[in-house]
Design a protein that fits this description.
single chain; alpha+beta; FAD/NAD(P)-binding domain; D-Amino Acid Oxidase, Chain A, domain 2; 2 domains; eight-stranded mixed β-sheet; 8 helices; elongated; binds flavin-adenine dinucleotide
Length: 371
């Protein structure tokens, strides 16, 4: 088993890609190993909303990190686009969060009925919210506008990151599932793949999204990751029906700049089943129709689903795995992995290279769950 690289990253999603690019830019040799195709997991399925806390209920440590993530996005994406020539359509459209009248008839579950905390943005009356988005003809009671929130064409993100890193020397292995982490004497020496090949590296970063839990478990490491299924659908629209991203509880409407209107989403704990169901689509449509009556008459463009990597305390696992020298994890970003990609890449590179533990990482250290 010869040592190929300083660092081996497991997982070719936005998180693995962001870490690989950060490490390559700092002059390390890096290999990235992906079970299937690059960027076809949650990073592809996501809605692409860059909003630090649209629910008002995230743990504070997550919101702080997501704010740092959003602040990093403009320069990070500009450099990525420059290096790859790929457009990622980063846009600060702003996010309008609305809530509905709890006494309105036929309210589906999971629409927001309570005003959001003041931190969610500038408070608007129902009339002001409708003046911004006239299509919201349902029983809206008020809204909050966060003008700096943004969106990005997320399916292009992981491929762009890995292309940028590959241009600077990243070695990429696709269709290569990692089946075990190799360790002896408390030191991680590399990984074994499904074909039985052993790949050695100076250190390993586990960034396999929702699959990080089972992979860690196969090496005796307790790292609970919950695959939260999210379903989405897209309508073809003749013109952009909204100027802003619109949220109402679990409902999200994202007007892509030149394309469909994305509508989501569900939050389901159904294991590793990433199929679309009629029940899921019905749930999404019922919510959307209640605040935008008639939306369901638009032509359906497509449907899809993905698995968010959730954790029991809604904070990602970021940092060294205790008891294993040279093994790191960056997984469990839940509903925030796209906004958190740049800051995750930066903070993980600093930990791996300089052992520099940013205070933002402390609540996210995996030692809170790993024995
Ligand atoms: C419907 C939906 C909407 C979302 N909306 C947003 C949003 O608007 N904003 C936001 O910030 N976030 C959003 N998210 C969350 C975001 O998509 C995730 O947090 C993020 O993509 C996680 O990135 P990742 O790289 O950790 O995981 P993934 O993108 O899933 O990548 C993990 C990769 O690891 C690979 N892998 C798995 N097992 C192995 C193995 N054994 N060996 C090698 N490779 C392996 C997989 O094939 C996959 O490519 C959404 C998610 C969903 C599903």
């Amino acid at each position: 088993m010869s040592r190929l690289s300083d660092i081996l990253v497991v997982g070719g999603g936005a998180i693995g890609g962001a870490i690989a690019w950060s490490l390559i830019k700092r002059g390390l040799t890096v290999t990235l190993v992906e079970a299937g195709r690059i960027g076809r997991g949650a990073s592809w399925a996501a809605a692409g909303v860059l909003a630090p806390d649209w629910s008002g209920h995230d743990p504070e440590a997550l919101t702080v990190m997501a704010e740092a993530g959003l602040a990093a996005w403009p320069d990070w994406v500009a450099e990525l686009e420059d290096r790859t020539g790929l457009g990622l359509s980063f846009r600060r459209d702003g996010l309008l969060n609305v809530w509905v009248d709890p006494d309105a008839p036929h309210l589906p579950h999971d629409l927001a009925t309570e005003p959001l905390p003041a931190a969610a943005g500038q408070r608007l009356s129902a009339a002001e919210a409708r003046a911004l988005e006239p299509a919201l003809t349902g029983p809206i009671l008020g809204g909050a506008l966060a003008p700096a929130d943004a969106q990005v064409d997320n399916p292009r993100l992981a491929p762009a990151l890995i292309r940028a890193a590959a241009d600077q020397g990243l070695r990429v292995l696709v269709d290569t599932p990692v089946t075990a982490l190799l360790g002896s004497g408390g030191v991680c020496r590399g990984v074994r793949t499904a074909s039985g090949t052993e790949i050695a590296a100076g250190a390993v970063v586990l960034a396999a999204g929702a699959w990080s839990g089972p992979l860690a478990a196969s090496s005796g490491i307790h790292l609970p990751v919950i695959p939260w299924r999210g379903q989405m659908l897209a309508f073809d629209t003749p013109a952009r029906p909204f100027r802003h991203i619109v949220f109402c509880g679990e409902l999200v409407l994202i007007p892509r700049p030149h394309g469909p209107l994305l509508v989501g989403t569900t939050l389901e704990n159904v294991g590793f089943d990433s199929r679309v169901t009629l029940a899921g689509l019905h749930q999404i449509l019922a919510r959307a129709e209640r605040i935008v009556p008639g939306l369901g008459d638009l032509p359906l463009a497509r449907t899809w689903a993905g698995l968010r990597p959730g954790t029991p305390d809604n904070l990602p696992y970021l940092g060294p795995i205790p008891g294993w020298d040279g093994l790191y994890v960056a997984a469990g970003h839940g509903r925030k992995g796209i906004i958190l990609a740049p800051i995750t890449g930066e903070l993980m590179a600093r930990v791996i290279l300089d052992h520099d533990l940013d205070p933002m990482l402390e609540p996210c250290l995996p030692q809170r769950v790993v024995d």
